Structures are given as structure tokens and as C-alpha cells.
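Why does residue order matter? Because the sequence determines the fold. Keep that principle in mind as you read this record.
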Amino acid sequence: MRKAHHSLPETSELEIQEHLDPQGNGLQRHSSFSRFPPETLTDESIPRDKERQPRRAPSNGMERRFLKLLRKKQLRFPEWYMYVRISSKKEDQHGVDFHIKTTDVGEIPVQLKSSFAGVRHHEERWPRSPAITIILKDHYSDEEILEKTFNFVGERRERRLGLLRSS
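Structure:
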């Protein structure tokens, strides 16, 4: 297979996701600057109408833990889960911390909070935010974090699939 020519800026390790390719042939490296897998990138295929937004660093310990956990290769994830990407600075300013990429409904935005008060504040500030707000406490085990995350994301995915089927 011929490698596609592309010119993306250098990316830090935080900006690289590893995920299973759609055919299940192992891991691919994927730059979070683009929604296209590397082999499909060409100069013509990179959308020019959207500016690439700089990525932000995880702002707290739970965000770092969440990101690290969802990037662990040895864990078992739902078959529809592809990878997680951190939001851009602009997306973060609109109440989105991460995007979880699925095989069938695209990206699902996620906002992490540590309390119900944080959720209320988030909902007041961004009443129309498309993000799923998940409360994750520092004392939660890795299993609890994964269970809560994939339960909420799975519900949103199912809703989107239902809407796609009915239209």
C-alpha cells in the first residue's frame, strides 16, 4: 500500500491516539489534528474550510487519569469504541473536555466533573452543550471510571443509532 502524502504540523505524544482500524487489523497511529486515518490523508483530502485548533493539556488529575485509562491497549473496550481525543481550546471553551470516537455514530463529546455542583454550574454556563457530563470522583477505581464512561457514552450512542434508523 502506498503511503499518502500529507503535511501536518509536528504533534506531541498527547496528540497521538492509537486505535484499532475498522477491519480489526491492529493498531494505527492517528493524529488528532485530523479526523482521517493516516492512509487516507492527502493534501486534497484535508479540509481547508476548518482551521485546525491547538490542543489543550488535561487540566486536572482526573482528566489525565481518564485519558491514560482510555488509551490503555491491554484493556477490554466495547467493540464500537475507537479512541478518545482531547478537545481543542475552542471546544473546551464551549464545555467539552474530550471526544470519544465510535465506529458507527462518530464522535461523542464528553465533559468530566467531580460533583453535582460542577454539573449544575456546567449546565448553567452551557445550557445547550452537546456533551455528556460524567461525574468521576478521585476515589473511583479504574473499573468504575470505565463502567460509568461507557454506560453514558453507550446510551448516547444508542440514542443516535435510533435516530439514524428512524430517519
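The mean pLDDT is 74.
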